[in-house]
Specification:
two-stranded antiparallel sheet, about 200 residues, 11 strands, alpha+beta
Amino acid sequence: MGRDSVQFQCHHCGHCCTEVVCLPTPWDVVRIVRDTGFNPYDFLEFLTPDEITGVDEGDPSWLSVGGERYMMALRRDAKGCFFLDKKTRYCSIYESRPILCRLYPFKLEETRDGAFKGFSLHTDVGCPRNRDGKVETAPLYALYLEDSGHHSDYDDLVEVFNRDAYSGKKPEDFIELFVEVPKKHRKRHEKGEVSPKLAIRE
């Protein structure tokens, strides 16, 4: 564990982009939409508890629809994340990637009273955790604090969504709380269709 730095170097093995489910916050989604113009209905999916592991039943980010629970995630297929370039095997939105991706595979270490101690590398993930480099912890901690703040607001949005009952409610409707997508663009694009104009809900 290091307070100022952690011994780590990413060797681009692709594990995090193929084996890990990324759970973005609405603010991650907004950043991706703003930077890339991608339609969130294309790159997001909503997973049920039997489709995802490691998320506590009591996590406040679960969306409730028709007696079932859903978690917002970046869409994946058999070859990995929606944004994984299939040729280069690198992230195609690296500068706009979710904070969770930026923090992987680092683990925050705190004292018993919650004071910052440093970062270590998760031992229960598939990342090979190569230690032939050095990563400064100050930017990691800033990301962690930003993510914590986003999750607090995320929980508030989920609470509003879960409280709103109406006929035909779908988990995808959650997107409309923070990104305004024209109805004609809510389904995947037809081949050759131009990208939609998106309005971010502030």
